[in-house]
Specification:
Cyt_P450_E_grp-I; monooxygenase activity; iron ion binding; 9 strands; single chain; mainly alpha; Cytochrome p450; 55% helix; two-stranded antiparallel ribbon; 12 helices
């Protein structure tokens, strides 16, 4: 598995990331020429989904001529919503088999739809390898299939599909939500947007694309990302943890086996730790239909990931 997710592999896939960002910029430029508003969340989701699917399968799952991305995003959000929904069975384990709120049932349906897609893609690749009669190593799927052929106990078809389920569900929705929140905060805080643009023009130069190697030279851009994650953590309660032994924390007894959630959202907005805790500090855009930045809707909606309650739509304007 190390060869699949190593730093060497990450560097080798840099061209794919660059290509997908260029696709996003091309779509944004076209919207600018047409004077059209961009659904920032949908654009970010398409880019993230295609980046993952090209890296893993060498194909774009978000085909612009189909509803694949829209349908997939709906499935992923439904998964996140069900996982984040308060469930009686989590508090009363005896109810798990009964599933009184049908949460497990709905999750099984959503996961099943995603696994069906992965099953088709893995089966097609296996058939292609059999027809060609040779191994290839062009993407993550090939690398995992090669591992599977060498050691089926370490990695088999079912494990591969389950791994992809984790990667896609965890990787697409969280990245999309963070990008949309970052853009929303910049539009909500025009001074921060102006400062970010000035840094890009000074360090990169007007009209030049940003390369991954440029990131260390863009401290304000990095601050924007960190501030976005402080105010809008992709997973507000982080990943659930289970106490391995009885433990006392701040006078509270956490019994062995208890599930523990850390409220990262509250920590990031704690006035005891942050001055002006709710304030955001750190292409030019304008808001669709002319609302003022101060009047922007900055509400979120409940789920295990933190998304905007209403999609962000912004019109790109030339600079």
């Amino acid at each position: 598995m190390e060869q699949v997710f190593s730093n060497k592999t990450l560097v080798a896939n840099q061209a794919i990331r660059h290509m997908k960002v260029q696709d996003l910029l091309a779509d944004t430029h076209q919207s600018s020429l047409n004077g059209e508003a961009v659904d920032v969340g949908r654009a970010a989701f398409k880019t993230t989904l295609n980046l993952l699917s090209t890296t893993i399968f060498s194909v774009d799952l978000a085909d612009p001529n189909s509803d694949t991305a829209r349908g997939y995003k709906e499935i992923v959000w439904n998964v996140m919503k069900e996982i984040g929904r308060p469930n009686l069975a989590d508090y009363f384990p005896v109810l798990k088999k009964v599933d009184p709120q049908r949460v497990r049932h709905r999750l099984a349906v959503h996961f099943g739809k995603i696994l069906e897609l992965f099953d088709r893609m893995v089966s097609q690749r296996l058939h292609l390898r059999e027809v060609c009669g040779s191994k290839t190593n062009k993407d993550v799927l090939d690398a995992l299939l090669n591992i599977s052929e060498e050691n089926s106990e370490e990695m088999d078809k079912t494990k591969i599909e389950r791994l992809f389920l984790d990667l896609f569900v965890a990787g697409t929705d969280t990245t999309t939500a963070t990008l949309e929140w970052a853009m929303a905060e910049l539009l909500h805080n025009p001074e921060a947007l102006s400062t970010a643009k000035a840094e890009l023009e000074q360090v990169i130069g007007k009209g030049n694309p940003v390369q991954e190697s440029d990131i260390p030279r863009l401290p304000y851009l990095q601050a924007i990302v960190k501030e976005t994650l402080r105010l809008h953590p992709a997973a507000p309660f982080l990943l659930p943890r289970k106490a391995q032994v009885d433990v006392e924390i701040s006078g509270y007894i956490i019994p062995k086996g208890a599930q523990v959630l850390v409220n990262a959202w509250a920590i990031g907005r704690d006035r005891r730790s942050w001055d002006n805790a709710k304030s955001f500090r750190a292409f030019s855009w304008k808001l669709e239909d002319g609302p003022k930045p101060v009047d922007m809707d900055m509400d979120d909606k409940f789920g295990i990931t933190l998304q905007r309650a209403h999609p962000l739509r912004a019109v790109p304007i030339p600079v």
